[in-house]
């Protein structure tokens, strides 16, 4: 039996976001450390399920057309093929996940925008279309979305508080 010591990775850029300390030919065990308001962009794993568990902090979890606020001790099952994204909240978050079977392939899409007021990368739900409205999860600026290649463009229509600009 091998015992692992896993140091929580420092939250950082996309490359250091995830550590994968244990990986076999069947499963991968991952540790994610998010800085405050850091996004894991929407993606899907065509042939592999994934189960997430929130160890610490809070995050918004996006699966398909649903979003939920998760905190410590919450777990989420993401079936193979389902779009999913994570956005940590003001204190950041630590999550672990298990994925299988291996090898896991990941397909990213354009389901995100960058808030024109605060710069946040905000994930979007499956089915988002040009013309849809959204509210920045961090600064609450209301925006209208337009599909534009790798991400949606977002145009401010109301500042935080809701008064029309
Ligand atoms: Zn914002």
TrEMBL record:
Pfam families xrefs: Cupin_2
Domain (Cupin type-2) spans 38-86
Quick one: signal sequence residues? none
Q: What is this protein called?
A: Cupin type-2 domain-containing protein
Q: Which organism is it from?
A: Methanocella paludicola (strain DSM 17711 / JCM 13418 / NBRC 101707 / SANAE)
